[in-house]
């Protein structure tokens, strides 16, 4: 959302979401960055295209790159005007992919701009393609084509892949919603995959939660429970040998710079402080559940959700629960996907507050609507998310600021874990 300031200057508050793009073996290829104005679901509200591109490239990319490996690529949506005004030159041709939006016509000026970008080493992708004949002039010029599988009849998925493959393009399946769709598209040869299938549990019939994983979930619950006395946290950490070893390795790292070696959990907790120790243990406990590439992305998403709900609760006059409880709600909200089990199976052995359990099981209740707001943000529906937070008494700009802060916090925590684990 843009507000006009004195002197005619503008500042904007924009929700920045990232959607992962996965390879055939579920490795991470890159992220599409979604910039949504807090009052507009179609995109950020800017006075002109140049300002939009500068906001995206300067603020958004720096945030998105935090803690991300150098081989990971970023996809940016480009309008006709952005293609013509050479906005792409602000981006690295090695790391960034230029996505040509579905409403960009393949006129002579646009095709010439695309050819110039190709010659300068930029990777071009055609977004939301569903086989439209009028968009075919783009096909010889692009390196990737993102097929909107929801807009294409399932019986035509194979034929469309074969057609695009003849052009030599990498074919990306986007809006992949289920693991069944992923497996079918994978069998047809599609090379990259984007959609919310990754955040859903890949259910395996008869699968049981291993005792070690159940212990970690229980540990997260105890650590996240605002009723748990802080002075008991060192004993909880000391009771988990793996967690204790990680803590001592972490606090003896160069990041702290202590001259003498720290040998006990008690000494470590005294140096860190009880609240930082609790947060550190929760981050590590979550990261340990699934260390696959997909698991790392779900860990980031869970931490971002947790921190955002916590920060948002602190801005609301009368939040439905304490901010610490809402942190736990966000933290647990993707455990089903991380563990490959339904949420009711995950929570069967965990004694949570009934309100949290109700929301996590998908009920349309007060806390359930907080999770619905998160889903809207992650799908790029800034308008719906803004409407919901406004109804709770929070300005959209404040919520967007909280979201940016949560993203930075989650990136830093995941990076710290990877660096010191």
Automatic annotation (TrEMBL):
SMART domains given for it? EAL
Q: InterPro entries in the record, alphabetically?
A: dGMP_Pdiesterase_EAL/HD-GYP, EAL_dom, EAL_sf, HDOD, RNase_Y/CdgJ
Q: Can you give the residue ranges of the HDOD domain?
A: 209-398
From which domain of life does this come? Bacteria
Query: PANTHER family, from UniProt?
Result: CYCLIC DI-GMP PHOSPHODIESTERASE CDGJ, PTHR33525
Q: What is this protein called?
A: EAL and modified HD-GYP domain-containing signal transduction protein
Q: Which organism is it from?
A: Paucidesulfovibrio gracilis DSM 16080
């Amino acid at each position: 959302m843009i507000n006009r300031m004195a002197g005619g200057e503008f500042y904007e508050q924009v929700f920045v979401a990232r959607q992962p793009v996965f390879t055939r073996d579920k490795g991470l290829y890159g992220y599409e960055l979604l910039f949504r104005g807090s009052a507009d679901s179609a995109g950020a509200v800017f006075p002109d295209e140049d300002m939009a591109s500068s906001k995206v490239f300067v603020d958004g990319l720096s945030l998105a790159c935090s803690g991300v490996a150098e081989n990971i690529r970023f996809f940016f949506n480009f309008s006709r005007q952005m293609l013509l005004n050479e906005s792409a030159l602000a981006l690295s041709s090695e790391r960034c992919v230029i996505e040509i939006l579905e409403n960009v016509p393949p006129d002579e000026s646009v095709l010439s701009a695309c050819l110039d970008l190709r010659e300068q080493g930029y990777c071009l992708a055609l977004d939301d393609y569903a086989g439209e004949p009028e968009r075919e002039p783009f096909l010889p010029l692009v390196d990737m084509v993102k097929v909107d599988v929801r807009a294409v009849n399932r019986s035509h998925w194979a034929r469309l892949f074969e057609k695009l493959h003849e052009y030599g393009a990498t074919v990306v399946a986007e809006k992949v919603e289920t693991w069944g769709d992923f497996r079918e598209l994978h069998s047809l040869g599609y090379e990259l995959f984007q959609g919310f299938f990754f955040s859903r549990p890949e259910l395996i019939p008869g699968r049981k939660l291993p005792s070690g994983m159940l212990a970690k979930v229980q540990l997260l619950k105890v650590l996240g429970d605002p009723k748990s006395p802080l002075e008991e946290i060192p004993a909880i950490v000391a009771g988990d040998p793996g967690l204790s070893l990680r803590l001592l390795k972490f606090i003896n790292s160069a990041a702290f710079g202590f001259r003498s070696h720290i040998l006990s959990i008690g000494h470590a907790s005294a140096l860190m402080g009880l609240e930082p120790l609790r947060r550190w243990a929760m981050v590590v406990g979550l990261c340990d559940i699934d260390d696959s590439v997909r698991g790392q992305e779900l860990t980031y998403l869970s931490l971002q959700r947790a921190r955002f709900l916590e920060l948002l609760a602190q801005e609301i006059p009368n939040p439905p629960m304490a901010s610490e409880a809402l942190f736990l709600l966000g933290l647990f909200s993707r455990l089903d996907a991380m563990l490959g089990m339904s949420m009711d199976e995950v929570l069967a052995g965990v004694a949570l507050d009934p309100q949290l359990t109700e929301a996590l099981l998908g009920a349309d209740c007060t806390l359930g609507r907080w999770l619905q707001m998160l889903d809207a943000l992650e799908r790029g529906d800034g308008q719906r998310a803004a409407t919901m937070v406004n109804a709770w008494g929070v300005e959209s700009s404040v919520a967007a600021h909280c979201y940016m802060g949560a993203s930075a916090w989650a990136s830093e925590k995941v990076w710290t874990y990877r660096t010191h684990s």
